[in-house]
Structure formats: structure tokens, C-alpha cells
Design goal:
6-stranded mixed beta sheet; Diaminopimelate Epimerase, Chain A, domain 1; 5-stranded parallel beta sheet; inorganic pyrophosphatase (n-terminal core); single chain
């Protein structure tokens, strides 16, 4: 990492240690894997410092919450708040620290110290990675938390960037890397892994037991005495046949989407696939159990079994959601697809389902995928872009929701927002209009 952001981290740590003496700290973090791992790293660090603190895990940082925060505490925002600077500036919060990697479109208030690569080298790094570097600056012994930063990177679909990071996170994590088909979990029997695998999404295989067995038969991989082998147990020839069988079912894919690095790390004293651990953390939060996600990250024994049960339920929700979206009516045009699932898919599941569809190769590169679901009196909007180029979906949502007074979070390739249900029809009308205009621009 370049010295500019390193210096920013050092300055921020010095200020934090100075202003937090004899002060209570409130941590507000996002509820996805990156936010949960960021929070865990911070919690462990503050415990070592014997600091008094509280923690809140939230889905969205809404205006009302910013204004309701106690003013006499040190406030730390993790994996959010870069889009809420205007609200923060209008509060009387004294010392605010933001560790985030989302885009900044507002002036930075005087009461805010912010660590964000968007202000420096625009390096692709997760909030958990930044939080780790912050906490390692506090105490070099905190390098034991590096594996949590890796989990956050993977949870934020930044696994391709892990090996590029010039900041020691990978070395500190003691992670093991193997190369092969990107089917996870790589440590579980292949038939189970393929049935619930969604990255890559394999048409006719993901969520389809019969399709799984046909693929394995085509790859000439047969069950042994104890059942099907795991991905890590395949020899070179078996791996090549498996990759070929998958490629034939995803003709638009390239080799990087099917074959890549498999990250293995020690969790609960057992070597596990980092992608599965990341998915379990995400599942706990998405099914409204962020406390279990935090306990799981801290490797508390009682949380392991609970997270396993939640993960099974979560994967079933995902498969059901994908099947529903496949069958339901959609609004489609050149370069876009909109699906309104209403109350049929949980709002916490819609983002994952839209992400999977955007990576499924069902739609052409550059296509904007927008999925919405009801969340009580609100509508959850999740927008994703197929491929590495094309529409900036965060900008698209920002332009579309301007009149509905909401905040758009995310990146140019994946973004989300929450609007009142009463705005459903005008939103869809405005969205379709903006998508059609975008086509003309392109």
C-alpha cells in the first residue's frame, strides 16, 4: 500500500489513542461479511486496550440514526458512513472515525477522521483490510486478526485483489492457497458443494440434484466408499475433467471465472475454505442474526453449531429465490433486466440473488440487473452489473432515487437503496426511463 494512506492510518491511530482516553466508544458497522469482520477486528483490539465500548450492526445508516447517536462518545463507523457525511456534519458528534472503502461524494466534516482509499490511491481493499491495518498500527501483535481481513475481502468479492495487496495482510494471515475449480466449499463432498454452489452459478446444476449427478458423471467422477470426494481430494486429471464439464455448461464464461485460487485458513482449529466461512458469516447477518455472526468470527464454541444451522437455511432460501426469479415475469430491454419479487423473496436475500444472477452468464456483459423486494413499509433495491464494464449502477440508482429522498450505498458494479413502498410505481417508471436513456448514451 502506498505511503500516503499508510501515513493517514498512522495519523488516525495517534489521534484515536489520544482522544479516546477515558472515553466510551460506540462502534457502528455494516451487517455483511466485510462489516462483521471489521467489527470483530475492532472489538478484539479494543478489548486488548481495555476500552469501554458498545457495538451496533446495521443494514443501512439512515439519517434518523445518525442524529440519535450519543454525542459524548467516540464514534467509529466501519464499512459505511462515506455517503452520510452531510448528516454527520449536522450533528454535534465530537470525534468521528470512519474506516470505509465506498465512494465519497460529499465534503468531509471537521469532526470526522476518515480512512478511505477513494481519497488516496483508489486501491481495491475491503473495510476489514483497512480496519486490520488500523488495528495492527495500534499493536503489531494484532496480526493474528489478519485472517478476518481476508474473510472480509472474500465476502466483498475482492478475492482477486488479495494477492495484489502490498501490505502484508496475506503473509500475516498464514493462509494456504491452492489452485483449482472455484467450487466451494472445497473441503466438502463435491455433490453437496455443487448443489448449493452459486459462484459460479451453473445452469441446470446449482440447486438441482439430478443436474449435479449428471455433471459428475460427465466428468467421470464417481462416489467412493465414503461418498463423493471433495474438490481438494481430486487429482490433476479429475480436476481437469471437472473444469471441462463445468465450462460446457457455462459457454460464455472465461477460465478465470471457473478456475482460480482457493483460500484455506484455520478456523475453530480446523483448515476450512475461506469462501465457506465468509458465506456463513454473511448468512447469519442476512437472516437477522448478526450477534451470532460476531460470535462465530470470534470463534466462540457455541456459535459454530448455530451458524451451521443458519447457513443450511440460508442456502435453501437462496436456491428458492433463484428458482422464483427464473419463473417470474420480468421487465426487460436492451442492456437491462428488472425483477420485482414483492413479498416473495426476503429483502435480506434479494441482494445475494441479484449478485448471483449477475455472475451467472445468463445475461450479456454490461447488463444492469435490478431486483427489488418488500421490506415492511419499504422496498429494498439491489442493482448489479454483469461483467467488469458497462453501466455504473450506483450512479443509475442515485439518479433514479433523487426525488425519493434516500441514500444509495455501494459501488459502480453493485449498489443498493431503500425507498418507501408508496413510491414503487414511480420508481419503476423512472428506473426504466433512465435505463433506456443510458442505452442511448452508450
Amino acid at each position: 500500500m502506498v505511503s500516503e494512506i499508510n501515513n493517514k492510518i498512522k495519523e488516525s491511530v495517534q489521534k484515536f489513542l489520544e482522544v479516546s482516553k477515558n472515553k466510551e466508544i460506540q462502534i457502528i458497522s455494516h451487517f455483511d461479511t466485510d462489516g462483521i469482520t471489521s467489527a470483530t477486528i475492532m472489538i478484539k483490539t479494543l478489548k486488548k486496550l481495555d476500552k469501554t465500548f458498545s457495538i451496533k450492526i446495521i443494514k443501512n445508516l439512515e439519517r434518523e440514526m445518525v442524529y440519535s447517536l450519543p454525542k459524548n462518545k467516540i464514534t467509529i463507523f466501519l464499512d459505511l458512513a462515506s455517503g452520510s457525511l452531510n448528516h454527520i456534519s449536522n450533528t454535534e458528534l465530537e470525534n468521528v472515525f470512519i474506516i470505509d472503502h465506498h465512494k465519497i461524494n460529499q465534503d468531509i466534516p471537521k469532526n470526522v477522521t476518515i480512512i478511505n482509499p477513494e481519497l488516496h490511491d483508489k486501491q481495491k481493499i475491503s473495510s476489514s483490510g483497512l480496519t486490520y491495518l488500523f488495528c495492527k498500527e495500534i499493536d503489531k501483535e494484532n496480526k493474528e486478526f489478519a485472517k478476518l481481513a481476508i474473510l472480509g475481502m472474500i465476502g466483498d468479492s475482492l478475492d482477486k485483489e488479495i494477492s495484489k495487496l502490498n501490505n502484508g495482510i496475506l503473509n500475516d494471515s498464514e493462509i494456504k492457497i491452492k489452485h483449482g475449480a472455484k467450487i466451494y466449499p472445497s473441503t466438502r463432498p463435491l455433490n453437496c458443494a455443487l448443489e448449493y454452489n452459486s459462484s459460479p452459478f451453473i445452469p441446470g446444476v446449482t440447486g438441482n440434484v439430478k443436474g449435479v449427478l449428471e455433471l459428475l458423471r460427465d466428468a467421470n467422477i464417481n462416489p467412493k466408499q465414503k461418498g463423493y470426494p471433495s474438490l481438494l481430494e481430486l487429482n490433476k486429471e479429475e480436476m481437469e475433467k471437472l473444469v471441462t464439464a463445468i465450462t460446457l455448461r457455462i459457454p460464455k464464461s472465461n477460465s478465470e471465472e471457473i478456475v482460480g485460487d482457493i483460500y484455506l485458513l484455520k478456523f475453530y482449529n480446523k483448515l476450512e475454505d475461506a469462501r465457506e466461512i465468509s458465506s456463513k458469516i454473511n448468512a447469519c447477518s442476512k437472516i437477522n442474526n448478526p450477534n451470532i455472526a460476531l460470535q462465530f468470527c470470534m470463534e466462540i464454541p457455541t456459535a459454530k453449531q448455530k451458524s451451521e444451522a443458519i447457513y443450511v437455511k440460508y442456502r435453501q432460501h437462496i436456491v428458492s429465490a433463484l428458482k422464483f426469479i427464473e419463473k417470474t415475469e420480468k421487465i426487460q430491454g436492451k442492456g437491462y433486466m428488472i425483477v420485482n419479487t414483492k413479498e416473495n423473496i426476503k429483502p435480506t436475500i434479494i441482494e445475494t440473488a441479484a449478485s448471483i444472477i449477475s455472475k451467472s452468464k445468463v445475461y450479456d456483459n454490461g447488463t444492469a440487473i435490478v431486483a427489488i423486494a418488500y421490506e415492511e413499509s419499504k422496498i429494498k433495491i439491489s442493482a448489479h452489473r454483469v461483467g467488469d464494464s458497462g453501466r455504473n449502477v450506483k450512479q443509475l440508482l442515485t439518479e433514479t432515487t433523487t426525488k425519493f429522498q434516500t441514500e444509495v450505498n455501494g459501488h459502480e458494479f453493485a449498489a443498493g437503496a431503500l425507498i418507501d413502498k408508496q413510491h414503487e410505481e414511480p420508481f419503476l417508471k423512472e428506473l426504466k426511463k433512465n435505463l433506456e436513456i443510458e442505452i442511448v448514451r452508450v
